Amino acid sequence: MADDPSNAELAHRIEAMRIDLKEDFRELVGRLDAKVSVERYEIERRNRDEVHVQLMERIAAIETERQQEKRDADQERRKAEDQRRADKRLILTGLIVPVLLILLQAYLAARGAGA
């Protein structure tokens, strides 16, 4: 029986185990308090997903608008080029051709008067 611990020693060991368990439970409670519940995690994840979807939709809308603006600008540029070509044709037919006709008539009149 010399190897058996005394009652006081057993009480001391039990008290030490109780203190260790108490500290372990405090640590465990602290860890659990720091954890997020599954429900809250799912709600936050859904909110992040919704925000992500909204951002992607806004980006797509902006890209579509930019492409439309680019098409509109190209169309305006082509329209302006067509207008310049039409103006050049108008100048040619409205000014140069009548002058050439007058010169041709003068030449023919001078040639006919001289013959």
Please sum up the structure shown.
91% of the residues lie in helices and 0% in strands. It contains two helices and no strands.
What are its keywords?
single chain, 115 residues, mainly alpha, rod-shaped
Task: Characterise this structure.
It is a single chain. The protein is an all-alpha fold. Helix content is 91%, strand content 0%. It is built from 2 helices and no strands. The protein has helices at residues 7-34, 38-114. The protein is rod-shaped.
**What would you report as the Rg, rounded to the nearest angstrom?**
48 Å
Shape: rod-shaped
**Whole-number mean pLDDT:** 89
Per DSSP E runs of 2 or more residues, the count of β-strands stands at 0
List strands and helices in order, with pairings.
Elements lengths: L6 H28 L3 H77 L1
